[in-house]
Amino acid sequence: GESVGLHLPTLSVQEGDNSIINCAYSNSASDYFIWYKQESGKGPQFIIDIRSNMDKRQGQRVTVLLNKTVKHLSLQIAATQPGDSAVYFCAEIPIEYGNKLVFGAGTILRVKS
Amino acid sequence: EAQVTQNPRYLITVTGKKLTVTCSQNMNHEYMSWYRQDPGLGLRQIYYSMNVEVTDKGDVPEGYKVSRKEKRNFPLILESPSPNQTSLYFCASSLVRGLWDGYTFGSGTRLTVV
Q1: Per-residue b/e over B18-52, b at no fewer than 16 CB within 10 Å?
Q2: A67-93: b or e for each residue (b if 16 or more CB lie within 10 Å)?
Q3: In percent, how much of chain A has pLDDT > 90?
Q4: For residues A28 and A70, what is the distance between their CA atoms, to the nearest angstrom?
Q5: What is the pLDDT of residue B2?
Q6: Calpha distance A47→A44 (Å, rounded)
Q7: Share in percent of chain B as helix, strand, coil (round to 5)
Q8: DSSP string for B21-37
Q9: What would the pLDDT profile of A41-77 be if each residue is shown by its tens digit?
Q10: Is the model's pLDDT at B106 over the cut of 90?
Q11: Which of A6, A89, A91 lies nearest to residue B39, judging by beta carbons?
Q12: Geometric angle at alpha carbon A109, from B32 and A44, rounded to 5°
């Protein structure tokens, strides 16, 4: 598969446990954030988004938390499954850049069976 | 199936030999974009297109060209590839710029320039 994981932080979790993936974003003026999942050999896939007027949003088995005070975003995955193994990265939209996505570097999630 | 199709998936070429990576989408999307992804870095935008015949530079446009003659196609052209363009490339499209939950990526093109 495609190797984009060099030098990325890695999170290893046991199947069935909950995973928490963190992202520190750079621009305090960003008002929209997205989490993407990138499986080996595939392009990024949208997981969940959140606007800056919210501090939490839930999807199916995933929750995104936003802490604007410390410019921190987290993705929580409940009951992690082997199919969750991938690179996860956040993206932000800084207001001054117009409608443009700025991507973080990513975190590798490895699920142990 | 709604998708963004890139070709080729893998390409090894020599310095200076012009190449084109094709990108096609079947969703009637107006907005299309090219990114490169390098180890340890996030996706960086090369070029984007708001609609037919409307293209603009992204963050790392040097050494690349694009065209948008038809709505569905957005080829990436490397006129004279160099080793620093060795990377993983992604094409993406959305109905319009800003509808990010519908932003669809292709499967990527791994380019090696020797």
Answers
A1: ebebebbbeeebbbbbbbbbbeebbbbbbbbbeee
A2: eeeeeebebbbeebeeebbbbbbbbbb
A3: 74
A4: 9
A5: 85
A6: 9
A7: 5, 50, 45
A8: EEEEESS--SEEEEEEE
A9: 899 999 999 999 999 999 999 999 999 999 999 999 9
A10: yes
A11: A6
A12: 10
What pLDDT was estimated at residue A2?
41
Predicted local distance difference test score (pLDDT) of residue A100:
83
Q: Taking CB atoms and an 8 Å cutoff, what residues of chain B touch A100?
A: 45
- A·B CB contacts under 8 A: 58
Q: Find, in chain A, the residue whose alpha carbon is nearest to that of B41.
A: A105
Spatial separation of the C-alpha atoms in residues A52 and B35, rounded to whole Å: 26
Instruction: State the nearest Cα–Cα gap between A80 and chain B, in angstroms.
Output: 23
Contact state of B88 with A2 under an 8 Å Cβ cutoff: yes
**Chain A partners of B44 at a C-beta cutoff of 8 Å?**
103
Instruction: Please state, in angstroms and rounded to a whole number, the distance separating the CA atoms of residues A16 and A18.
Output: 7
The CA distances from residue A11 to A22, A62, A85, in Å, are: 10, 16, 10
